[in-house]
Amino acid sequence: MADLLPYLIGGLANGALYSLLALGFVLVYRATSVVNFAIGEFLLVGAYLTYTFALLLPLPLALLAALPLAFLFGVLVERGFVRPLLGRNVVAVIMATIGLAAALDGGVQLLWGPDLKYLPGSLPDLGFEAGGVYVSSRAVWNLLLALPLGLGLLWLLRKSRYGVLVRAISEREVAALALGIPTARILAGVWGVSALLATLAGALLAAASGVGHNLVFFGLKVFPVAILGGLDAVGGALAAGFLLGVLEALSQRYLEAYLPGFTEALPFVVVLLVLLVRPYGLFGERQIERV
Question: Has UniProt tagged this entry with the keyword Lyase (predicted)?
Answer without folding.
Answer: no
